[in-house]
Structure formats: structure tokens, C-alpha cells
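Researcher: Following up on the earlier apo prediction. This time include the ligand. It's ISC, with the SMILES given after the sequence.
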Amino acid sequence: MQFSTHLSSTVQTQQTSHSVWQAAVQAGYPAAIWRLPNRTDREVIIDASGHVSTVVMDLEELPMGFAVSPFINPEAENTFFLKADFYWRFDENGTVLAAQNKLSDGHPAFEALFRSEPSGSKNETVSTVKVIEPSDNQQNNFEKNVARAIRQIERGTFRKVVLARTKTVRFEEQPDIPTLFNRLCSAYPNAFVSAVYLPDLNQIWIGATPERLVSVDARGIFKTVALAGTQPAYDTEGRPKRTMDAPWTQKEIEEQALVGRYIIGCFKKIRVREYLEEGPRTVVAGNLMHLRSDYSVDTQVLNFPQLGTVMLRLLHPTSAVCGMPREAAQEFILDNELHPREFYSGFLGPVNVYQAEGPETHLFVNLRCMKLEGQEGTLYAGAGLTEDSVPAKEWRETELKCDTLLSLLTK
Ligand SMILES: C=C(O[C@H]1C=CC=C(C(=O)O)[C@@H]1O)C(=O)O
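Model: Understood. Below is the ligand-bound prediction.
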């Protein structure tokens, strides 16, 4: 799809990622801001329809936009999609590198979004936050659920399940999302950092996830990963551990291997044998370390341009967030978890966004994230369980995962 590169000069050159985000939220337009792993530029999309519609994820057909999927989304047919009516790319200092606009002159969104002068970077602080510490009851319930899951694993109902929990925080006033976003970008350079405003739901989701679900770059290279196993990235004295020294238990090796086997099973289903597998290796994700295997396929050599779409439908939800076998694990999650996951452990990311060489899609699993509704934030974290799981250790693991965001909120 081609874009007009025209934007009124005020819109094109004077905006910052801060000001366009604020303008969209104030005017009630869906907006997404993101930074890809190991990149410095930030990208922003605003949907000028004022609503987020749902689409079937067909990467071949979809226009440029930003996808947000809930955890429960069979065949990815019910995915929220922000159309790129406005698109900007900024460098890390906020200079506009590219700006595109799909609307005709005089569209009411121009007026609503940019009627005032760009406000610049006002209020670059995150308001004071009160963490509602989980009660013993919450911890007990989670650990009871873990024990219940282990019994089901021993009975053979499933081999692995991922159980999640929430943690609530209250802000004195709505936090400044672009500031929080910038903090996440600086703290987690190899994460996918994003914030999405969904006015219909009155929610903002913000996070820094380490898990790529499906990417197809401009050269047609498909990528996915098998990520699992968790340990702190720092030793007890607070010194960073060396990845080569990270000790992994049999439980964690098996947990990650199950995710890898699941991905290979998906390739087998569609008779793709020409995939490259690298790893598993230890990777750092903020305050944590994981085991990760990387998979890639050259879709052009294979003459299989739909691979991204086909794999997305097969992969989501992977056994890194659901379990194995998938159906039994999902049933257990729906029956036992105390909070609906909503967009946590769904996927999100840019779709068909033009880069120098052509359109690219980069979808990530929505982990290490927070839902913000007014002044209340809900953090989500899950832990992969196998028969060797210890309930108290799994709770501790979810606490560490919540810290990825919490440590930056309480800074
Ligand atoms: C489910 C989460 O993490 C997944 C990704 C990496 C490691 C995981 C684990 O060790 O359990 C989880 O499978 C989460 O962060 O909420």
C-alpha cells in the first residue's frame, strides 16, 4: 500500500512522539507507539476512525497498522487493528525521520488532533505509585492452583501449563505514558517496547516483552522463537550474572524444549522442512534470563509468502504462554485462573509497516506488561509449570516478572 508523504508542515516537523501520543489520547483516537528490539527509532500510529475494529489476521491482505490480540483468539480471527491513518518515525532524540498520512486534507482528525500547538515534552515524570501488595490469600490461591496443575500433569491431562496472576498498582494521577515508554526503552534495549491506547475500552497497555511471535521482514525472512525457563539475571549481591555461567535445571531445559517441539510440530504440519534452528542459548530480558531458540525461514526461496499468516494461526497461543497439549492446557487456564487475561499473553505489533526496503510485520507476545485504566494499573505475569514445579518458587518467579515494569514505576 502506498502512502501520501504529505502532512501539514506543523504536523510533519514540529511534533514529538510525546506530543502526538498526548494529542491522540486527549482527542480519543486509538494510538500505538513502539520501539523494535535493538533499534533506537520510535514509531507511532494513530487511527483516525476513533474506534478500533477487529480483523482476521491475514498479513497478505491487511493494510499498514498495529495489531493487538487477546489471549483467547482462535485462528487470530478477532484481532484488534489500528489503521495507520497517521504514521511517524522519530529518532531517539525525537527528530521526525518519516511522516505519512492517509487522510485527505480537511479530515476532522487533523483539527481534533493538531488544533493546538504541539505541547512538547511536558511533565516528564511518572506520578507516585502505590503498590497494592498481594495478600497471603492471593499467594495461597496461586500456589494452590500450581499444586492442582501439577496433579493434572501427573495424571497425564497435559505436560505443561502456564498459570498467570495479576498485581495491582494505584497512581496518584494518570502516569505520563511517553515518559514511562522512554524509561522502558532505555532500560530494556533488546525488548519490544510498546504502548497502545484503546479508547473503546478506555485502556492503555504498556510493556517491554522479550518474546517474538512472528516476524516477516522486507526480504521475506520469517522468524519466531521458543522462549522459556526463567532465572534472575543478577546474583544475590546484585551483580549481573554472565549468560555463559547461567545454571539451568532439568525442569527448565524440558520446559523450553516443549516450546521448541511445539514450533517444529507447526512447521511439520505445513510440511516446511527448510527452517534454520539456532540455540537454545541463554538470553537476558531485563532483570531475568531465559532460554531461547531462534527459528527462521526464507519465504522467498520457499515461494511461501503466506508463511507468516499460516504460522501465526498455528502458533498462537504457544506453549510459552498456554501449555502442551494446547487445548487441555487452555481449558485448565480458563477454569482456574482468577483473572481474565484480556490482552496479556496475546500478541501485538506493527503490521506491514514500510521500512527502507519494504513492508515489515513484527508481532510479539504481550508479556511483562501493564493494563492502565484511569489511575489503576494491573500487572500480569505467568509461570510455566511442569511436573517438577515447586509452587512457592513459581510465585517468586511471577514476582520477578512483575518487577520488570514495577522497578521502573517506583523509580
Ligand atoms: C508467561 C510469561 O513468560 C513466559 C516467557 C518466558 C519464560 C516463561 C517461564 O519461564 O515460565 C514463560 O513461559 C510471563 O512473563 O508472564
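Model: The longest helix spans residues 136-155.
Researcher: Noted. I'll compare it with the apo version next.
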